[in-house]
Amino acid sequence: MNNKVLSWGIFILLSFIWGSPFIIMKLSKESLPPLLITSLLIFSAGIVLLPFALFHISKISPKKIGFVLIAGIFGNLVPAFLYPIAISNNVDSALAGILNALTPIFVIILGFLFFRNRVSSTKAIGVLIGFTGICLLTFMEQTINFQNSGYALLIVLATISYAFNILLVSYFLKEQNPIHITTVSISFLIIPSAFILWQQGFLTLNFHNSDILESVSAVALLGIAGTAIATGLFYILLKKGGGVFASMIIYGTPFVALFWGFIYHEKITTIRIVSLIIILAGVYLASRKSNENK
Q1: Does the CA dihedral 133-137-143-148 come out positive or negative?
Q2: Structural domain total, the chain
Q3: How far apart (Å, rounded) are the C-alpha atoms in residues 36 and 202?
Q4: Which domain holds residue 117?
Q5: Rounded to two decimals, what is the model's pTM?
Q6: pLDDT tens digits along 178-201
């Protein structure tokens, strides 16, 4: 199998892996509370990555361990809490997938505000276009259901958390192997996620109930596939297809979220599709120059 075919295969697989969590969270909310979904997701990923983390932690500078822990919090813990809470309050999985595409735009904004990154005119136009998309989407969602659109802002906060983590890693952990950062940072979260599982009564769940068992299995699989396995696949894609091709994943996942939303009879309105196109156009312009330089 040549690199091109392998790269496209991994690209499509990753698009489905990273575009599917929103619908899994929606389907699981009927049987599990949002905090339990979050803690189970992180705990499952941490357990799978723990053997690797025990080997990798010695390869991380002791001075950088604090930054690695912060990366785990903002790159995994905070978003993992915000998404289930939003979706459990009837934010459509398709809408969550669309808003998730804002991450690159917030990388540029936070980089400018806190890291003094220079912003070219092309990036500035891209940011403005992206925010035009989100304003259109938010306004129209509010006309339909104000409460749901308010909870949708939690998804926006999650993308800001992702963006902050990307900048943190880029500036303070750039000399560290990204796989080492991933395994160690997520494994650090086993302790708090295990505490929350206990506090949320995970051990007292009725596992004889088929709905609960299916939800627990789906969320655990999401933690394993969406974090542990997908991370490895992404780095293979990065190596085989290059940085530009790998970065295009952000364009694939929202359409997968829309696909699942359609399958499960969510409202796939014209406004949502138009807003997604506008947001992705902004992301393209905002990231084009950096991609060309890779």
Answers
A1: negative
A2: 1
A3: 7
A4: 3-292
A5: 0.84
A6: 888 989 999 999 999 999 999 999
